[in-house]
Amino acid sequence: MINTDLIKSVIYLQRRIIKKQKIIPRDYFFEPNDNYVLVGMRRAGKTTIMHKLARDLVEKGADWNQIIYVNFEDERLNEMKLSDLDTIVAAASEMTDKQPYFFFDEIQNIDGWERFARRLADQGERVYITGSNSKMMSSEIISRLGGRYMMKYVTPYNFTEYLTAKNIQHDEEAMLTTQMRAKIVQGCQSYLENGGLPDSLNQIVPRNYLTNIYQNIFLGDIVTRNSVRNVESLRLLISKIAETVMHEVSYSRLATSVKQTQNPISTQIAIKYINYAKEAYLLFDIKNYASKFAERESTPKFYFLDNGILNLFLFQKDPVLLENMVAITLYNKYKEDMYYLHSAKNKIDLDFYLPSVKTAVQVAWELDDFSKEREIAALTTLAQKDKKIDHFEIITWNQEETIEANEIQIQVKPLYKFLLAAEKHNY
């Protein structure tokens, strides 16, 4: 039976969990008078951020009885229904005569939960919500909650957070000290290969953990949620996309490559499956800035939202991981204002084009004589054709220099310096 004593017991248990948890500070800002729904890839850290929000409220003067944190995955709430949700409000009124702060973790387990959440918002309550991607995608949340909540997109750790979690110093002193800098570079290698899902840092063999997370995303957030029937074609499609990272590819070409394995799939079905993967925060794409609209939409470049998951599909392909990591970092900052630029007419082949910050970025694992000439030529040609761009970079694994060419200055940066700088400020 769902009564206030049971709800309070769930809240008290969660309070103990929140108090003792080690929390890595993350760079997220929440308006104090807004309600939020946290969305993002599975295991990206949404629940931990809610725990941090609760602790921050207490540090600012709230008492713990105002923190009404309900984890709906507690098995004691398995029989809870929409009609029982008001019991949470009743329990809050018994626990405090001050304003409560409601935290609902995995609330999608309750059918019709959105009506309850809307009502709380309409009553002026402060509410924070997370939900499993398999039932609660960002595209649905807006309509379900009627615009009463802000969405906060939660990513896996950025590099700064990753180093903090691994207790690797990364301030100015560390950057200028040989031994400390070596630890940062070592951390960057691990980050490049294993990605930034927080719990992966606690694994002896991160690959096993990442395989499990990918299967949960694949089977739960994509296959089950969307009732996908042709599971093998979907599996092959995602594998083929992993092979195309760094390259533009058409939907029709992807469909053809899957059909060549004797697994039937049409171009339209391939587009639908890819959209499912994007909704599950597995993939994202960027468009060609130089293309007309129809071609821009049909021939994107695909990337994975976590390097560790992409690496499950690769074998000794560090250049692919490098470009994917740069893509993730730029995408998390610029979202839709991020492109690649391929123009046969102007002889430009540019990895990343960021018009809002007047920046062009090339990625190369190593600049040898041949690749150096190619990467510089792409940037100098762009500078001649597009006078709006005034910042030029080449991201490598470990090289650093400043190149003067055709009246422009090109900054060659090692990945670790690019990641730390990009996360602190815009270009």
UniProtKB/TrEMBL annotation:
Residues 36-163 form the AAA domain. It comes from the Bacteria. InterPro entries: AAA_14 (IPR041682), DUF4143 (IPR025420), P-loop_NTPase (IPR027417). Residues 221-352 form the DUF4143 domain. Pfam families: AAA_14, DUF4143. PANTHER family: AAA+ ATPASE DOMAIN-CONTAINING PROTEIN, ATPASE. This is ATP-binding protein.
